[in-house]
TrEMBL record:
Tree of life domain: Bacteria
UniProt cross-references to Pfam families, sorted A to Z: Big_10, YkuD
Comp. bias (Polar residues): 55-68
The entry's keywords: Acyltransferase, Cell membrane, Cell shape, Cell wall biogenesis/degradation, Lipoprotein, Membrane, Palmitate, Peptidoglycan synthesis, Signal, Transferase
GO cellular component: extracellular region
Pathway participation: Glycan biosynthesis; Cell wall biogenesis; peptidoglycan biosynthesis
Protein name: Lipoprotein
GO biological process terms, semicolon-separated: cell wall organization; peptidoglycan-protein cross-linking; regulation of cell shape
Active site: H344, C363
Amino acid sequence: MNGQPISGASVGATGRRGRRRGGVRLQALAAGALLLVLTACGGGETGGAKGGQDPASQGSGKPENAASQAVVTILPKDGADSVATSGALKVTAEQGKLSTVTVADSKGAAVEGKIAADGASWSPTAHLSAGTQYKVHAVAKDAEGRESAKDTTFTTLVPKNTFIGHYTPEDGSTVGVGMPVSINFTRGITDPDAVEKAIKVTAEPAVEIEGHWFGNDRLDFRPEEYWAAGTKVTVDLNLDGVEGRPGVYGKQKKTITFTIGRRQVSTVDASAKTMKIERDGSIIKTLPITAGAPSTTTYNGQMVISEKYKVTRMNGATVGFGGEYDIKDVPHAMRLSTSGTFVHGNYWAPKSTFGSSNVSHGCVGLSDTRGAGDSSTPAAWFYERSIIGDVIVVKNSKDKQIQPENGLNGWNMPWSEWTK
């Protein structure tokens, strides 16, 4: 009884195990067949050489989407503050070449710069402004053309000591052909090259314009000859951030424009005691004058009208003549020099003086009336037809030539010396 069930159970168990082993063998055979099929499709090593393998195993063996080898470095570092306005900003690339560098302030104003010929570095071509945040974006490419980029932000220093330049002529003005651009600085400049580089004077029509320093606090610009009538002149003052002297920085960024009016050049002959007014190439009037007396002669040379006063006070004590005169209501006065040379109306000398005698303290006098109210006088006529920047040339006086820094009178310096 017990043996049969056991025997039957054994047979049954054996049959099930046999089926499992048979199933495993069938699966193995099927897998083998599939492997043969896949091997046949793959073509083996010989077939792989014809293009059936994964791309990473072919050619140079370089993986796709690899990182660029180029390394971009930006100085100053990201987040730096109190950065110097000159000499601190530089972008470099290693194992690659710079392709793009942009630097701009928080308002989007770009900083001009240049990538070196070898692509290894970029430097600004001008100084940075003080107390300003800048953003730098730089891109370099490696030998395979893969790009690497870097972005940083930094802020320049806030100076404790500053300077500005007081300039003439005024923005929007119309001036005579002799008008230079003259800038007087509030602090003495010890790095004139840096300051001059930050000032750009251009003209339309174009003409060569050069700057010249008088001492360490005045810089004038002019062309070789008088401006052509109708010229438009633009002055870009980019002094903000310029270190004019150790620890002293400019804080001025401004553009001014002015226009050259008609050409008027008047010639005073101190010996003949006349003044001929030439307008656009023609003599429009000859006026009798009185120049400096024998003991107080008038300077020779080219002089530019720098100021105009319908009535002004002239006190001899302010220009080294002690108490010789103090006239509170000199009419139609136009300044020609810092030292006190004017062309002006004279109501206190007899009319017969003009054209016959030199009696002034160095000025050029024209007949006039007290109060500047008579428009028919020679002084009034000339005053109304003159503008700041007009030229008055004095000749045949028994005095020396005026110094170029005495007023706006740089025309008395040869161009070869002006451009040194």
